[in-house]
Write a structure and sequence with these properties.
The structure holds two protein chains of two kinds. Chain A has a domain of 66 residues. Helix content of chain A is 32%, strand content 28%. Chain A has seven helices and ten strands. Chain A has a six-stranded mixed beta sheet with strand order 6-7-8-3-9-10, with helices on both faces. The mean pLDDT of chain A is 95. Chain B is of the alpha+beta class. Chain B has a four-stranded antiparallel beta sheet with strand order 2-3-1-4. In chain B, helix 2 runs antiparallel to helix 6, helix 2 packs parallel to helix 8 and helix 2 packs across helix 9. The radius of gyration of chain B is 31 Å and the shape is elongated. The chains are: A alpha/beta, B alpha+beta. The interface between A and B is medium-sized, with 22 and 20 residues. The complex binds adenosine-5'-triphosphate (ATP) and magnesium ion.
Chain lengths: 226, 297
């Protein structure tokens, strides 16, 4: 599903954020990416999102080589990837419902499908009651659930999450993890960069540990530390 | 179906954002209108001068060939034959001494008695040239024939007028080009504000997988709508403004100088099309320029 071959990333500033990354992630896997601050976790997510281009190496998503693609094709690659950020990134002038519907409108979805689909995902993140609230009227945990709903509304095969619990207290973090786990159980591949030791240790999944841009551990059902 | 829906929501977005930024929008519309209105009057000026040139040309397509008194009949025949065979000549007319005097008398009217006893008028030919561009060549050829005293024609006036018309056209184009550049700049700044205020939204749209054209279109549309509104305003202003001027001036001009301005009705269609095209072009260009920076998320 995702394959990285000898991927390296050096930023223009000269920082080598990733060096020789070889990685194979299968359909339906749940993968934590852990490591100290600056280890290169976000950089890895950005490469997958085509927000940054790798300096060398090859990258495949769904069997398609996406290492070097025309800018015009990037939106279509991104439609395979739901994405969740630490800071939620919701539109404050749109309601919860509209924020989610928006992701479908952009792809030109049928309004009938939108009306049918949005309540389903809202229910999935347990926010049916908040459908017409604005993001500012929600708690951090609720906002993150909206952003997860938006990420999965178009049914992407892969969900990328960069520290989705980073701004949340443990309880809310746990709530988010339940939802991500549920999404994964329904067949979506989940890749999650995180600092949350408790979560990684309790919900044991494949752990890929980065240190200074190099994979130092790739462990099935691993813990946060070795 | 898909596309239609996207177009609909795109329009909605454009109108919303125009309404939100109506202050700057007004500035944009005014600047495009200013360009178009000036363009309109420059055009009217150019068209009037062109009409004048055509008019003058038709009046000055005559060449007068004055003959020496001792010109032979063969040479007269040569001139006539030449005129008949030369493609560039429309007509030739022989004007004898007597006829020349008659014409003069008619021109002088009441003071015609002063001409009493004048007998030194030469015989002449009056030739009408089809295209006055060829006048020089034709005159040169006729000049080779023996027995011609001198040849008179009005090349200078026409040349001067043509040069004048050329300068007006050239100056007009420069003024308009500068004005267009300025208003593209103003528009692009207006739209840049809108784009900047929606920067976060654009970033989010890109993460979700919106195409560049999906993101760009509302802004381009916004620019084009500015342009169209400005064009409609300018069409009305130029049409009625010029119509007023025309009524005011044209009577006097045509009496004094037998010059005709272009009537407003004849320019309405041309300026309408031109204004709509240029107006929306300025708007589109302005917004495309303003988007460049923000699309590389
Ligand atoms: N746009 C950029 N330009 C230059 N250097 C960058 C850029 N983004 C990240 N870096 C550098 O690349 C390295 C890896 O950064 P990255 O954001 O991937 O780390 P991270 O593992 O996500 O850290 P954190 O846990 O703090 O989020 C760091 O040294 C960082 O300073
Ligand atoms: Mg990071």
């Amino acid at each position: 599903m995702i394959k990285l071959v000898n991927i390296s990333k050096e930023y223009k500033s000269g920082v080598k954020a990733l060096t020789d990354i070889n990685l194979h992630i299968h359909k339906g896997e749940f993968v934590y990416i852990v490591g100290e601050s600056g280890a290169g976790k976000s950089t890895l997510i950005k490469l997958l999102l085509k927000e940054e281009a790798p300096t060398s190496g090859e990258m495949y998503i769904n069997g398609v080589n996406v290492t070097k693609v025309n800018n015009r094709r990037i939106p279509y690659i991104r439609r395979n990837l739901g994405v969740v950020f630490q800071d939620f990134r919701l539109l404050n002038n749109k309601t919860v419902y509209e924020n989610i519907a928006f992701a479908m409108e952009i792809l030109g979805a049928d309004p009938k499908d939108i009306r049918r689909r949005v309540p389903v995902v809202l229910n999935r993140v347990d926010l049916s009651r908040k459908s017409s609230s604005f993001p500012e009227q929600l708690s951090g945990g609720e906002q993150q659930r909206v952003s997860i709903a938006r990420a999965i509304v178009n049914n992407p095969p892969i969900l990328l999450a960069d520290e989705p619990t980073g701004n949340l207290d443990p309880d809310n973090g746990l709530e988010i993890m339940k939802i991500l786990n549920d999404i994964n159980a329904r067949g979506t591949t989940v890749i999650m960069a995180t600092h949350a030791k408790e979560i990684v240790d309790n919900l044991r999944r494949r752990v890929i540990q980065l240190k200074d841009g190099v994979i130092v551990r790739d462990q099935k059902r691993g813990g946060y530390d070795e | 179906m898909n596309n239609f829906r996207i177009i609909k929501s795109t329009f909605r977005q454009s109108f919303k954002s125009m309404w939100r930024n109506r202050g700057m929008g007004l500035a944009s519309i005014s600047s495009i209108s200013a360009v178009l209105i000036i363009l309109g009057f420059v055009l009217v000026l150019i068209m009037s001068i062109n009409a004048l040139v055509v008019d003058v040309q038709s009046k000055f397509d005559e060449v007068e060939i004055f003959l020496k008194e001792d010109i032979t009949e063969e040479n007269k025949k040569l001139i006539e034959d030449f005129a008949q065979n030369e493609d560039g000549i429309k007509s030739i007319e022989y004007i004898s001494q007597e006829k020349a005097l008659e014409i003069l008398k008619k021109d002088w009217g009441e003071e015609a008695d002063l001409l009493e006893g004048v007998t030194t008028l030469p015989d002449s030919y009056k030739i009408k040239i089809i295209d006055i561009q060829n006048t020089d060549k034709i005159v040169e050829k006729i000049n080779d024939i023996e027995g011609i005293d001198k040849i008179k024609y009005h090349k200078d006036i026409i040349d001067k007028l043509k040069v004048f018309a050329k300068y007006i056209r050239f100056g007009g184009i420069i003024v308009i080009a500068v004005l267009i550049a300025i208003s593209v700049f103003i528009i692009s700044n207006t739209i840049k504000l809108t784009v900047a205020s929606r920067r976060r939204e654009i970033g989010i749209m890109k993460y979700i997988g919106a195409t560049n054209s999906y993101i760009k279109t509302p802004f381009v549309l916004e620019g084009v709508l500015f342009g169209i509104v400005a064009a409609i305003m300018s069409i009305l202003i130029v049409y009625f403004g010029y119509g007023y001027l025309f009524d005011l001036i044209n009577g006097k001009l045509s009496v004094l100088y037998s010059i005709m301005l272009v009537p407003p009705e004849t320019i309405l269609k041309d300026i309408s099309i031109m204004f709509l095209v240029i107006g929306s072009g300025i708007g589109a260009l302005g917004s495309i320029i303003s988007m460049k920076k923000y699309l590389n998320v």
